[in-house]
Amino acid sequence: MVQVLPIGLTASVAVAASSANLGPGFDSLGLALGLYDEVIVETVESGLVVRVEGEGAGQVPLTSDHLVVQGIMRGLREAGVQAPGLVVHCRNAIPHQRGLGSSAAAVVGGLAVVNGLVAQVDQRCLTQAQLIQLASEFEGHPDNAAAAVLGGAVVSWTECRPDGGAAYAAAALRLHPDIHLFPAIPQLRSSTAETRALLPEQVSHHDARFNVSRAALLVVALTERPDLLLAATEDVLHQPQRAAAQPGSAALLQLLRRHGIAAVLSGAGPAVIALTTAPQLPAEVLESDEARAFHIAEMPVGEAVTWNSGVAVPG
After folding, report:
1. 24 annotated among ligand-binding-site residues
2. Could you report the per-residue pLDDT of 268-312, keeping only the tens digit for each?
3. What is the pLDDT confidence band of residue 201, given thresholds at 50, 70 and 90?
4. What is the SS3 assignment for 43-70?
5. Any known ligand binding at 104?
6. What SS3 class is residue 22?
7. Does 174 show up as a binding residue in the annotation?
8. Does residue 151 share a domain with residue 188?
9. Which structural domain, as residue segments, surrounds residue 38?
10. pLDDT per residue over 160-194, tens digit each?
11. Which CATH number belongs to the domain containing residue 110 in this structure?
């Protein structure tokens, strides 16, 4: 029998932004960024109230179609409980449709906040592996979701299950402490579905071999040899194909790399992220015409998703 949660439970969760692909690691490598969305939930007698402040306010649905709510409902089912009613308050800092994992953060946040609720009624919390699996089912690939769950850098992969479904998993990497992250975030938005449609169905053996070598090298560069980051972030499978749709991002990417800085599209773009051992980017880059349309600042590595119980819910 499904347990109904009591009225008056509260819980909150903080979940990080993420950058996926990192150049050659298409749909497999990810990195959490120190920019967080917060979800605060209260169980109430009936109904659903969704409040959003910050990014997406006035733009996202305030109904059961909201991704955070969908994540909550999926998490409740997985935990074997029901909520009589919910008040869901979202405080968003992660920009939407910029390639910074806002969708993955919403789903992971919804799933993880369930742990803060069920922990108060002695129900078993969802594990990190379960959070990755469930969130990746929404996304269709595990790179952003895994980074949001585990924090730091991750390698993720997908396996086919006997029932025809997909099993998603990930392993954390210990990011080298000398690496600094500089996201470049534009006001321009982009649809991942639209930019993914630009990619060919088939690639040559030459291009596949190139990216496999660079993705393998990138794991070494991220963990042990940051001096190899420039070569390790080369890509031929998706960034060149997306350049025509995001000319500003492509121009900034090329400028950074001409200055010897390992720069990549963040996910499908249009954000760009630079990975460097230098404490700051060159002034000639920051003052360039290419950088003018972007907000560029150093950002720490994101932490694993965390949840708390018994928090105050804003009115």
Report:
1. no
2. 999 999 999 999 999 999 999 999 999 999 999 999 999 998 776
3. confident
4. ECCCEEEEEEEECCCCCCCCCCCCHHHH
5. yes
6. coil
7. no
8. no
9. 3-173+301-309
10. 988 889 999 999 999 999 999 999 999 888 766 66
11. 3.30.230.10
Identify whether 314 is part of a domain.
Answer: no
Exposed / middle / buried, residue 25 (Cβ in 10 Å: 0-12, 13-18, 19+): buried
DSSP string for 61-108: -SSTTSHHHHHHHHHHHHHTEE-SEEEEEEEE-SPTTSSS-HHHHHHH
Q: How many CB atoms lie within 10 A of CB 237?
A: 21
Same domain? For 13 and 161 the reply is: yes
Pairing of strands 47-54, 85-92: parallel
Does the annotation place 100 within a ligand binding site?
yes
CATH number of the domain residue 185 falls in: 3.30.70.890
| Pairing mode of beta strands 3-4, 81-82 | parallel
The verdict on whether residue 216 carries a ligand-binding annotation is no
Residue at 315 is within a domain: no
Q: Do 198 and 115 share a structural domain?
A: no
Predicted confidence (pLDDT) at residue 24 exceeds the cutoff of 90: yes
249 neighbors 202 (Cβ within 8 angstroms): no
Query: 194 and 104 in one domain?
Result: no
- Please name the helix (run of DSSP H) or strand (run of DSSP E) that holds residue 284, with its range, or none: helix 283-286
Q: What are phi and psi of 249, to 5 degrees?
A: -65, -40
77 and 152 fall within a common domain: yes
| Inter-CA distances, 30 with 4, 41, 101, 231, 309, Å | 36, 28, 10, 18, 28
Q: Flag whether 101 is marked binding.
A: yes
Q: Is 98 annotated as a binding residue?
A: yes
99 known ligand binder = yes
For residues 18 and 159, membership in a common domain is answered with: yes
Residues 48 and 31 in one domain: yes
| Same domain as 284, residue 266 | yes
Would you say 96 is a known binding-site residue?
A: yes
| Whether 267 contacts 20, CB under 8 Å | yes
Q: Per the structure, how many domains does the chain have?
A: 2
248 known ligand binder: no
- Note whether residue 279 is domain-resident: yes
